[in-house]
Amino acid sequence: MTFDYERGIKMKKTFSHELLIYPCPIVLITSKYKNIENVLAVSWAGVASSHPEYVTISIKKSRFSHTLIMKSKVFTINMINKELLKKADYCGTYSAKSVNKFEKCGFTQLAGKHINVPMIKECPINIECSVCQTLELGSHTLIIGKVIGKFIDSNIYIDKLYESLDPVVYFRPNYYSINKTLLGTYGKMNEVIANNEEIF
User: Fold this and answer.
1) Where are the beta strands (DSSP E) in 80-173?
2) Is 142 exposed, middle or buried (0-12, 13-18, 19+ CB in 10 A)?
């Protein structure tokens, strides 16, 4: 396959806005150091490795949670659903320096099983992590966490996870529910391409 470089350049323009990859998940990060605890909404989060399991979160250095995580070396990821969106937005807007977000949002705290960080009962999935590496990358610190505990509501069936979670995503500056139309299944979408030799 050939590419017309000159024509290709004319079809594109420089993207000068802030670099972001959309859409982003929305999670609540709980942290605790000594007797100080906090909950922060984060959209820059993802899976880094499946075997063994590692995750990443990216947090501004000015955030109160940044200090707690850097000192304690542990944190918990709490997955939200549509019902928790307004509370998650609040947790990403207000600082724990001026308000107790656990109390303000009415979150029920569950004691961590493997680490001394509370889980949020109302969140359907909770993931306990220990910090294994951090990278200072300008405005944010990339935190790599090793998963040491995973918990899910007992009324959720793994084979119907998507229907049960009612997930939402962030497409700056707005939040969106995910259309539940099934578009395909991983590994089974490529048959048309695989059987069409002309494409390659």
Assistant:
1) 109-110, 119-120, 125-137, 140-152, 168-171
2) middle
pTM exceeds cut of 0.85 = yes
What mean pLDDT is predicted for residues 48-68?
A: 96
Q: Into which CATH architecture does domain 15-199 fall?
A: Roll (2.30)
Q: Give yes or no for residue 147 having a pLDDT over 90.
A: yes
**Domain edges within the chain:** 15-199
**Phi-psi label, residue 187: left if phi above 0, alpha if psi -120 to 50, beta otherwise:** left
Give the end-to-end CA distance of the chain in Å, rounded to a whole number: 8
Mean pLDDT of 143-156: 96
Q: By CB neighbour count within 10 A (0-12 exposed, 13-18 middle, 19+ buried), where does 65 fall?
A: buried
Strand pairing report for 36-42 and 109-110: unpaired
Q: How many residues appear in the chain?
A: 200
Decide which of 186 and 150 is more confident.
150
